Amino acid sequence: MQFREEHEIHSRKRSMNRGVGLVLAAFVALVFGLTVVKVSNLDFSEMPGAEAPASGAEVTQ
Amino acid sequence: MTDASINTQVQDGEAQFGDFVALLKPRVMSLVVFTAAVGLIAAPVPVHPFVAFCAILFIALGGGASGALNMWYDADIDAVMKRTSKRPIPTGRVTPGDALALGLGLSGASVLMLGLAANWLAAGLLAFTIFFYAVIYTMWLKRWTPQNIVIGGAAGAFPPMIGWAVATGGISVESVLMFALTFMWTPPHFWALALFMNSDYEKAGVPMLTVTHGRTSTRRHVFVYTLLLAPVALGIGFTSIGGPLYLAVATVLNLLFIKGAWDILRRDEATAEADKYRVEKRFFALSLLYLFLHFGAILAEAVLRPWGLGGW
Predict the structure, then answer these.
(1) Which of A31, B155, B277, B301 satisfies CB 3.0 to 4.6 Å to B133 for a cystine?
(2) Interchain pair A33, B15: CB under 8 A
(3) Of B302, B229, B305, whose CA–CA distance to B39 is shortest?
């Protein structure tokens, strides 16, 4: 059986697919990185619904 | 039909990845990245390095999106002009529909992601910049008025303001002056280009000042706008982002720029044609250096500040 010779269009499509794949992978990495940075810088005490310190936890002199 | 019988010429829609990158005008993007980064770094509020990186990337992608929309709408003009005839749409490597889809998709994604990564003022400014370049400049002003460059220059002037907004969440006199610097620089920069690329614009029917008012008037305009640019550039030196280094760089550059514009003003067409627009080309090259060094000096002041060297 004879394999068909690869046409220029095939290599063009492969370059396109690789490029789009890399862009999508980079986008996922960016969103993941942003999420990590945002969550680690979050001040949870200022979140709505955050519990106020219990009265028993007051520091006595 | 076998593969071998497929026409070997470039087919519509059979673009390579690089053709889509070319739609984003990478050279313009590099200016956007640089000025946005300077605006962000010069701001008095520190930003997490990863957030700063993402914000600049999304600003650059927004700029690229407006470039793709510009190429989609201006494909007819681009095909006529020598300078732009090799772009992906006129050569048939990318279909107009694909360019439009890329432009619109990237516009939405970049604005949304900037809003999520930084803040919604910065995202709103980016959205306005894309709208201004694609609709106000490309679709309206460019084909209608010889002042197209003057007003359209605002689109290219927003990135440092967006970078500043990413860091501070606001607008201030410093960010407005950085905007004004690029805004006032654009007319002399492009009119100098038009002086030695006039036939291109004339062929495409773009009402550049050189086509509608003639070259003598364009030379006057270059000189007047260069004079108006100088106080803006020097004014930055007296704000919180300026300093002795910036002021020294700005003084030298503005003297050179005014001298270049004066040389352009004094020349007539016969002299310019005789030496193939040597002075105009030199002024154009100087204009690139002018903007780069002004923003470079703002960056240097910001970088030196933690060591007590930058600023006043």
Answers:
(1) B155
(2) no
(3) B302
